[in-house]
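Sample intake sheet
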Amino acid sequence: MELLALFAQNLLPVFLTAGAGWLLAARMKTDPRPLAQIGLYVLAPALILDIILQNALPPGEQLRMMAFSFSALAVPGLAAFAIARALRWPRTRTSALVLACLLTNAGNYGMSVNLLAFGPGALPQASLFFLASAIVSYTAGIFVASLGRTGLRESLAGLVRVPTVWSVVVAFAMTAAKLHLPGPVATSVHLLSQACIPVFLLVLGMQLQGARLTGPVRPMLFAAALRLGGGAAAGTLLAPLFGLTGVARQAGVLQSSMPTAVLAAILATEYDVEPGFVTSVVLLTTVLSPLTLTPMIAWLRG
């Protein structure tokens, strides 16, 4: 009964909001891309800028969370690569598996659940994990998807175009210089930041509306276990090694446990590395995630 209450309080609102996006796409055939672009290029930078400026974390704590995030993301991806090579899977299947295990939904899903589960104090930590996941997605993610066809220069150029990265740079520079946004600008940024998470959840539902479970069952289950179970294990084991305690540990471990990001399916489609398989893993891990995240929240709160 306690787990059911935790699900109703912390995860059900996320799925209900995403469900509204699903219905919108199903009934009106609404294209999620414009809304996703608004979220990526306007709302997410505003959210991160607002969080960092309003809740300035010590530099050492910021670096610790970022280092933890990169490590927690890398472990399931490296494990997937090693196991796929050991099983002698073809390059496309190996690339698809690594993408599905490496790229986690730390944005529209992860930040929403952290806010509901641990309160506003978790958002600065969760946003740093989200930033790390964005960096990994637009560098390592592109490298994995392209299997060496994209060079370092192109990947870095793609990263430079991600507004969330620049919002963090600006926020950290302002914090170091003890500068503040002018009143009207700060109010505008805060208003935009408040819209970020609901819009992200609508986009998630819209993106999943056309997803179907297709492809080989065993590799899909294997990928889901690595992303959900392996990610949770990596976060749990790495947190004490990086000295994470309190809300930083809660946010970091929970972010590590999130399902596969929709961006993995987008990259798989663009580079033609079994997109149906990756999309199926996105859907499967998202649907199964309440079964793993609910007890994880209970454990982290205890």
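Comment: The first helix runs from residue 2 to 10. The two ends are 16 Å apart (CA to CA).
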